Amino acid sequence: MTTGAPRRVDVVMGTRPEVIKLAPVVIALRRRPEVSVRVVFTGQHADIGTQALYDFGLSPDLALASMDPGQSLSSLLARLVAALGPATARGGPDVVIGQGDSSSAFAAAIAAHHARVPFAHVEAGLRTPTLHLPFPEEGYRRAISALSTVHFAPTPASAQRLVAEGHDPAQVHHVGNTVVDAQRLVLSGMTIPRPPSSTGRVLVTLHRRELIADGLTALLSVVVDAARERPHLHFCLLRHPNPAVARAIDALASLPSNITVLDPQPHGALTRLLAETLLLVTDSGGLQEEAACLGIPTVVAREVTDRPEPVAEGLAVLAGTRPKRFADTLRDWLDVPPMRRPIAAFGDGHAADRIAELLFRSA
Description:
6-stranded parallel β-sheet; alpha/beta; single chain; Rossmann fold; 363 residues
């Protein structure tokens, strides 16, 4: 893409993590008078995604209704492609931007490919060795890379991986992770709390599809047992909007008084909650990144992680999803957590500005 005539950019998002990580990109692009930005919201996370847009002062320019209760992954993807295809063709964008590895991102890449419009992939190059972990995201992001014109990689390792896979080095850019930009926007004007004492909070959020299918109830029981053993700690258990996760949490019986179950939190409130946390227990990729930026020790409930940087620096530990290993790791880190220390693995909070600049040279 070259500078000159005004350029039209579709930024497609559907899940809350996409909104969080693409909002800084929309803001950076809208600071450029030569760019016309259309925010396309698929509604994959209808309520919490809309709330996240509001938190950043944004609203959809085009809202699609993609969700149907109980639909399969194939049905969701088909609905998204069927909606985004005509929307992309009618909108006539010069480039489509998507983020990450969701159904919305994959559908946006397919729609752009069908319309012969360049696709720019934000947070490109994350990988695990296993096609089905995480599921379906690992397969989706590999396919998105194949359909992308330009790749905005969050870390040096992700950029190197894309080049090693055969993508044009001139189209692969290490820019940092836009989650740091979003966190900086949320926390601007807020003093980061001092490290909490040993009577601090443990924040727990478990929701991944592969965990729901095999093991969520067992891991939740481990968390409950750990809370009973440590009445001096306060456990906050987030109820994810996925109905299967909510049912598993609601089915827990006789919770100790030091466990609080919280409904889904707006991104700003969740960021502040995380900033005051002693230890994070999660299977969320985005929260692994946000915790690392704040220096929060993290127990990762996954067999493999696509965010290896905090683990390599000793701020996070891969606890797996087998109950005994998870329980042993959780207890070790509850009793002797690592020192709280922010790491800079995911960038300096200016990734969106780099994307806005490079987009015109690459797509």
